[in-house]
Design a protein that fits this description.
Length: about 600
């Protein structure tokens, strides 16, 4: 006989047979099927939950929310990369996916745009809390929201070309006080002989503002003379570079025998070195510590949904992924910790720099105002005494008073930038008919051509060749009235307008009359306008100088100026530095 089907055996059954009884719990196959069924059910539940969670966080059914972010130019590439990844991940707010768009703009321009209402970003990532604090302290900026945290950090440091850094040894200590000393041209024997300091404009660049504040604070802590500080700031205002890229590029260009040193952010140096491996820059970390750009985030959105999106993106920027992107581009974390790219072998110090105490908004505003005043151009008319007494010898020297005064004037010229407008008159008596003065060089830019040569060269020639009029007296008062009238009529609003009198200090000595001392003072007091000030600076040199000091003081005070008696030629640098210092208090320097 043939075999029956095997399904009739071993638990097999035919359709006509009744089904087998349910096995007890102890049967082997039940042990497998029950947990398997539970696992499948759990997987299904987890899958459903994951689906629900994913779609809850990535639900774009309600459309999109556009989040417009304006970032400082240096941090914008990193923020854009983070934003692109964030948008692709379909993060949603109330069933609307967030689409982040990042543009770059200068923070100072954005600040003005926000205050005026011409710019309306949803999120602003500036580069400095100091700048925002100063803005919010003003009436116009008081409505600007406070920063909602810091995105990254980059210390402000000194910088030099790697190829020249070794030459700084012994000339410049990497410090803010050292920078001030190097920039103080009123000290001819200082480090400025070997170092040329470049600055970033603090009115356009937060790193420049931070460097200025750090230097001022360090100078105060080191008890540096105020006049030296002002002289240094004036020199720095004449060595301003418009942006950090241009400054870093210029550090490789030597200026005669002087090594150029500038200020920059650590991250800016990293980017420069990465893109220009043949012109490496080394950061010089100030020994006193420093201030940092801290890239504050300000949520300026008005719409509630956009505000939620901004808050969510802020959280994203604080995450590990975003921090990694920022550190890869040379930034430090908000806590100051460096990433893997800022290594010692690349010239960086990974350790967190000592942080200087951040100045308050009032100090920031005051320093910004001081810089603005010091950076104003110069319009100056020098009155050169060539009366007979100027031919007398100066005791203890082989020079005449005329030669000494001419050298003093030459020293003064060396302190002024090329766009300064300067001219010179000679005065005595009867230089042109009955007129007591004569124009030697008209007032104009030093770099402008006059009589076939640059005006500065023409001035030097006149100073070195002009001789005293042997029979001449000192027609100072008539000359001063004529000069003051002209400088008032030709007043330049964007410059400091000054008349400098270089004399042996004998005062007015005009036997033929002219206006008296009292009439001169009355004229100056009547003509002087504190809103359009023309200051008189008098510098006298020689043994007769003290005799005229009282009248000199009166003439200067009437116009918010100052009078000095020079004991030696180089002292004139101090006088001009004092004159610069008075820019900060004008027109109320004497209370």
């Amino acid at each position: 006989m043939g075999r029956h089907r095997t399904d009739e055996l071993d638990d097999g059954y035919r359709a006509i047979d009744p089904p087998p009884r349910r096995r007890s719990r102890g049967s082997g196959r039940g042990k497998v099927l029950v947990p398997l069924a539970g696992a499948v059910a759990l997987a299904v539940l987890l899958g459903v939950a994951a689906f629900v969670i994913f779609n809850r966080d990535h639900d774009c059914s309600g459309g999109k929310i556009a989040l417009n972010v304006v970032a400082a130019p240096d941090i914008q590439p990193a923020i854009s990369k983070i934003a692109t990844n964030y948008t692709k991940a379909l993060h949603s707010i109330d069933s609307r996916c967030v689409e982040v768009k990042v543009t770059k703009d200068n923070p100072f321009k954005v600040a003005n745009g926000l205050v005026s209402g011409k710019m309306t970003p949803d999120v602003w990532i500036a580069d400095s809390t100091l700048m925002i604090a100063e803005l919010r302290a003003t009436q116009a900026g008081s409505a600007l929201p406070a920063p909602a945290g810091s995105v990254a950090r980059s210390p402000i440091v000194l910088a030099a070309a790697k190829s020249m850094a070794a030459k700084l040894s012994g000339s410049l200590t990497p410090s803010w006080a050292g920078m001030i000393s190097a920039a103080n041209r009123a000290n001819p024997d200082g480090p400025g002989r070997k170092v040329r300091v470049l600055a970033l404009d603090p009115k356009r660049n937060s790193a420049g503002l931070g460097a200025l504040l750090a230097a001022a604070g360090a100078a105060k802590d080191a008890d540096l003379d105020d006049t030296a500080m002002v002289a240094a700031l004036k020199e720095l205002s004449d060595q301003v570079v418009t942006n950090q890229d241009a400054l870093l590029a210029s550090l490789g260009v030597k200026s005669g025998s002087r090594v150029p040193v500038g200020v920059a952010t650590e991250q800016g140096i990293f980017v420069h070195n990465t893109s220009k491996p043949d012109s490496q820059i080394v950061p010089l970390y100030p020994e006193e510590g420093t201030l940092s750009l801290d890239y504050p985030l300000v949520i300026t959105a008005k719409d509630p949904a956009v505000q939620k999106a901004a808050a969510a993106f802020k959280t994203e920027l604080a995450g590990d992924g975003a921090k990694k992107v920022l550190k890869q581009q040379g930034f430090r974390g908000p806590d100051g910790k460096a990433g893997e790219v800022l290594t010692k072998d690349k010239g960086f110090n990974p350790a967190t720099p000592n942080a200087l105490k951040a100045p308050d908004p009032k100090t920031v505003a005051s320093m910004a105002q001081s810089w603005s005043r010091l950076s104003l151009g110069t319009r100056m008319l020098a009155l050169l005494d060539i009366s007979g007494t100027m031919a007398y010898p100066v005791p203890g020297t082989q020079m005449t008073r005329m030669q000494a005064i001419s050298k003093i004037a030459g020293e003064g010229l060396s302190l002024f930038e090329a766009d300064s407008e300067i001219g010179v008159w000679a005065f005595s008596t009867h230089l042109q008919g009955t007129q007591d003065w004569k124009e030697l060089v008209s007032v104009g830019p030093l770099s402008e051509m006059t009589n076939g040569v640059p005006r500065k060269q023409s001035l030097v020639q006149q100073l070195t060749t002009t001789v005293a009029k042997a029979t001449g007296n000192t027609g100072l008062n008539d000359t001063l009235k004529a000069a003051y009238t002209q400088m008032t009529e030709d007043y330049a609003d964007d410059k400091i307008n000054t008349i400098v009198v270089l004399t042996d200090g004998a005062g007015n000595d005009d036997p033929e009359g002219g206006i008296s001392n009292a009439e001169t003072l009355q004229f100056l007091k009547k003509t002087y306008d504190p809103k359009r000030p023309v200051n008189i600076l008098l510098i006298a040199f020689g043994p007769d100088a003290p005799k005229g000091k009282t009248q000199m003081d009166a003439l200067a005070k009437a116009t918010g100026g100052e009078a000095y008696i020079a004991k030696n030629i180089l002292q004139v640098r101090e006088f001009f530095a004092e004159g610069m210092k008075r820019r900060l208090c004008a027109p109320r320097c004497d209370g």
